[in-house]
Amino acid sequence: MTDEATPWSLHPECPDVARLGPDPTIGLLRARGARAMADRDQRTDAWRGGFTRRRFLAGAGAVGVAALGSQLVTARASFGAQAAGGTLVVVFLRGGMDGLSAVVPADDPHLAAARPDIGIPAGTLLQLDRGFGLHPALAPLHDLYARGLFTAVPAVSTPDISRSHFQAQDCLERGGSSAGTAEGWLDRVLDVTGPGTTFRSLTVGTTVTRSLAGDQSAMSLRKVDAFELHAGDADMHARTTQALAALYTGVDHPITLDVAATLDGLGTAAMMSAAGYEPASPYPEGEFGERMKEVARLIKADVGLRVACVDVGGWDTHTDHGNVDDGAVTRQLTDLGATLGAFATDLSDRLGQVNVVVMTEFGRRVEQNASRGTDHGHGAAVLLLGGGLAGGRVHGTWNGLAPEGLDQGDVPGWNDYRDVLSEVLTARLGVGAGDLPTVFPGHQARPIGIMA
Amino acid sequence: MTEQHPDNESGARPWRRRSVLAGLAGTGVGAAALVATRGLSGSDGARSVLPEARSAAARPSDAGGFANRDESYANSSGAEQISAVQEAPPTLLYPTAAEAAAGTAVTVPTILDTSDPVVHLLRRATFGPTPALVDEVHAVGIDAWLATQLQPLTIADPEGDLVWGAFPLASADPAEVQASVGRYRWDAMLDFSAATMARQMWSNRQLYEVMVDFWANHLNAPTPGPGSWDVGGSYQRGVIRTHALGTFTDMLLAAGRHPAMLRYLTATQSTKDSVNENLGRELLELHTVGVSSGYTETDVRNSAYILTGRTVVGQDGPGPESTFRYDPDKHWVGPVTVLDFRHDNATADGGLEVGDAYLRHLAAHPSTAATIARKLAVRFVSDIPPATLVDRLAAAYLDNGTAILPVLDTLFRSAEFWAAVGQKTRRPLENITASVRALGCVPTGDIPHSVGVLHNAAFNAGQRPLGWPAPNGYPDVHAAWRSAGNMVETWNTHRMLVFDWEDGLTRPDPVGLLAGLPSATVGEYVDSLCRRLCFQAFQPAHRDALVAFLGGDPAAPLAPHLAGEDAGQAIALVLDSPYFSLR
C-alpha cells in the first residue's frame, strides 16, 4: 500500500477506512496492517541511512510500537480467494535424510543389490503407490496417507545444490538457486503475501532459520510459555515495555526491529500462556516433539501464523543405518513419524488449513558404504502433510535406480524443489502465479500435481 | 587386488560408472562467489528448466552462492550489511596498537560513544568491560595491557582458578571420567561447558578466553555432544586451550589425532575399504581451506582416504579405552592428491605421517589463511569485515607459520579494528557474561549452583558454551541471532541478576553499584547508571525514557525509588538497552 492509500485515521467511521474493504471491520484491519507495514518500512529505511520517498508517518515512528497496539491485526493484502488462516509449516531435516529409506522403491532390484545390509525388507513396508512403500517407522504417516492427508515426492533437488551440507542447505533456503537470491525464500513469501500479525512467521528455536532471514520481520522463539518478560506485576510490566520501546526508538540498527517484534509478541504470548495448552494427544519426548507442539498451539490460537519453521538434526547417517528394527535411520524416522502423527492428531480438523513440507538438503547415495551407512547424495524425498493434497499417490518423476541413470551414484534431481514448493504456496498461501518468480527468481514453476 | 582407486581420474569400477550427465562443465575457478556474479550452473549451464535430471555440482564452489553460513546470513538483508569502515582512513596499519587507537578517527554512525578506544577494546577483547578493567588499561596503556593478555600464564588468576576448580570433572582425564560417571552420561561434558562459562565471567585472562571460545567453535567438537562423554574435556584442554595462542598447525595436528574429533566426525569408522567422507569433507570445508578454494568431490574423497587408519581404542582394547590409535591395516595406500597436496602415500606404516603432512599443508594454505583471517575479523571487527583487514591478517598468518599471536598483534594495530565501534551485537552468551561482569556479581557459596543457573540461562537462549551441535560452531553474525525468544531470555537474566531470584550470586545494590557516582536525584541516578554499566551517557531521548520510568522528574529525589523495585528495574533496563546490546 502506498502512503496515499494509508488512512491517517483508524476511526471505524472514517470514510478512508471504509473504502479499504467490503465492510468497515475488514477495512480497519487492512488499515492497521498497512500502517504497521509502513512503520516497519520507515524504520527499515531509516537505518539504511536515508529516508525514502515514503512520507514520514507523523507520530507513529517516534512513539514506537506501543502506538500500534500490542497486536498487529491480520490484513490479507493479497485479497486472494484462499480463506485467511492457511499455514505452511516447513520442517527442515538437517544432515541429509535418506529418502530411499523413507519412501522406498520397494520393487527396484538395484536398491536391494546396492544395500545388502541396510535395505528395508519389502515385507515390512507400508504400501504407497507406484511400487513405493513407507518405512514402517513412519506408520503414523501411512494412516494419514489412507485419509488423503499425506503424500511424498521422491528425487527432489535443484541444479545448484552440491554435496556440501552448508552449501546445499544455504542454496535451498535462499530459494534453490545461487543467482540473485540473498534473502531466504520464506522472507520473499512474506513479502508477496503482505502484511499480517506479529506471529505471521515463526522459527521455533533459538536462531533464525536461514529461509526466513531477510528484511521482513520474523519471529523466533523456543517456547510460548518461556516467552514471558519477568518484570513483576502488571504495572511494572507495562512501564518496562514502554521504556524498552522508547530505548530502541531512533536507533540506527536492525536490532530495533527485533525489539519491536519482541514487544509486539509478548502480549499475544501472555494471553496464550494464560490460557495454557493441552495437546489432543501426547507428542514424543524430545526437541522436535516440543517444537511441533508449539506450532500446533500457535495455529490453534489463531494468531495469524502463516509460516512456521522447525529444524531437526541428526540425519547425517554416514554410519549405522541399521536395519528396520534399529539403527540411526529407524530412530530418526520413528521420531519423525510419531511427532508428525501427533501434530496431525493435535490439529484434527484444522489440519485441512495447514500443509507441512518436510525437506532436507540432499538425499543419500544409493549404494551403502562399508560402515553400513550412506554418504551424501543428491535427489531427496519430500514429505507433505495436510489439507488440499492430491492424495493416494506418490507424485513426481521417478525413473528407477539403474546405475546408468544415476547421477554419480546418486538419485538425480528428477523433480525440482521449487516446483513442489510453488504448488503448495499457491494452494495454501494464495501466492499468485505472478508472484512466484519473486519467490523463486529465474525459475518457471511447473505444477507436479501434488495439490488437488 | 590392484589398488586402482575408483575415484582417481583414470579409472572407475563398473558400478561407479559415471552417468552421462555427470561430466560437468563447471565454470567455477574457486573464487569467493557473491550471488550477483553467478548464474545457474547445471551440467550444461542451461538456464531453462529441463525435464531430465540435474546433476549435482562436482565441486561445491561451482554451485555458487556464499562461501559459508555466516557470510550468507550477514548478506541476507540490506539491513544486515553493517560494515565498519565507511571511508578509508589514511593509515591502515600502525606500529603499535596504542598508536592505532589514537590515530584512527571513528566515523561510522553508532550510538556507542566513540571517544574512548579503551572501552571499545574491552568490548571486543573480553567478555565484558568492568570499571576496574577500564581504569587498569588507562593506567598501564593499551600496548602493555595487550602484551600481558597475550601472555596469559603471566597473569595471576585466583578467581578463574577457583571457579574452574569447583568443577573437578572439567579437569578430569578420560580414565578419571570413565571411573566417575556412568557410561555415556553427559556429566563431565556439561561440567566442562559450565566451567568454561565460569572462566569467561571471572577469569583475568580475558583475551585468552575469547580466543579459546573462537577456536572451540572453529574446530567444533560439541561439548556436550556425541562421542565426547569421556574425552570432551581432554579435547578442549589439549587441543583448544593448549594451542589457542600457539599455531593453528599445532592445533590442527592435535585435533587430527584426538578421539573426540575422530568420533564426532565418524573417522573411527572410516577405513580403506569403507571410507566415509565426514571428517575429510569438514576438514576442507570448515576447518581449513573452505569451499572457495575450489576443492572437488574427488578431493573430498581423497582427503578422507589420507586420514584412514586414525581411530580410537574401543572398550576391548588394545590399550586404554578412548585413546588415539593409528591402525596401519585400515590405512588406504597409494598416491593421493588434494588440491595442491600430493603424496605417494606408499606404505601403511607411513600413513600417519602422510596425514600429518597433509594437515600441515592445509594449515599453511593461503585459503586457510583467508578463512581464518575472515572469521577472526568477523569475531573482532564486524559482520561484513573490510577486505583490507582480512587480507592483512591472512598475510600475517602465512608470514608467521600459522602463529596466532602475530595475527592478533596485526589486528590490534589495524585502523579497521579501532574504527568499528558499535558494529557487533552481543550474542546471548556474550550478553549474559557481560551482564555478570558489568554488575560485578560473583558466587557467594555454592559455585556449581550459581554457575549452573547462568549456564542454564545461556542454554535457554541458545548459546551454551561449546554446545553448537554441527561442526560449523555457533553463528557469529547478528542476522542469525534475531530471535525474540533469546531477547526475552536475556532481559529476564538481567532481572534475575539484579533481584537474585535464584540463589548463589551477590546482588548488586543500586547505590553501592555506583561506587561514589552521584545518585541523589533521579537524573543523577540514571546518568550514573549509564556511565557505570555502559561507560557513556545515553542520548537525550533514551535518557528521558529512563527518567520517565522513574517518575519523569530528573530533579526528584531517588530515595523513594529505592524502597521498591524501581531502582533495580532501572539497572535491568540499562542492560536491556541498545547501549549494552551493541558492542
* Largest protein-protein interface: A-B, 108 and 107 residues
Going by helix content, strand content and strand pairing, the class of chain B is: mainly alpha
C-alpha termini separation of chain A: 32 Å
Distance between the termini of chain B: 61 Å
Order of helices and strands of chain A: HHHEHEHEEHEHHEEHHHEHEEEHH
Mean pLDDT, all residues of chain B: 88
Helix % of chain B is: 40-55%
**Discrete helix count of chain A:** 14
Work out the helix count of chain B.
Answer: 27
Share of helix of chain A, binned: 25-40%
Largest pleated sheet of chain A: 8 strands, mixed
What is the number of E strands of chain A? 11
Spatial ordering of strands, largest sheet of chain A: 7-6-8-1-9-10-5-11
Structural class of chain A: alpha/beta
Q: What overall form of chain B do the CA principal axes indicate?
A: globular
Question: How does this structure look, described?
Answer:
The complex is a heterodimer of chains A (452) and B (583). Chain A has helices at residues 15-18, 24-47, 60-63, 99-102, 109-114, 139-146, 165-173, 185-193, 234-247, 255-275, 287-300, 328-347, 417-429, 436-439; strands at residues 87-93, 103-105, 126-127, 132-134, 150-157, 201-204, 219-221, 307-312, 354-360, 380-386, 415-416. With 452 residues, chain A is α/β, with parallel strands linked by helices. In chain A, strands 7-6-8-1-9-10-5-11 form an eight-stranded mixed sheet, with helices on both faces. By secondary structure, chain B is an all-alpha fold. Chain B has helices at 69-74, 97-103, 117-125, 131-140, 142-149, 158-165, 174-180, 187-202, 206-218, 232-243, 248-255, 259-264, 278-287, 297-306, 351-363, 366-380, 387-399, 404-412, 415-419, 428-439, 447-460, 484-499, 522-534, 540-549, 559-563, 566-576, 578-581, and strands spanning 310-312, 324-326, 336-338, 341-343. In chain B, β3 and β4 form a beta hairpin. Mean pLDDT of chain B is 88; it is low at 1-55.
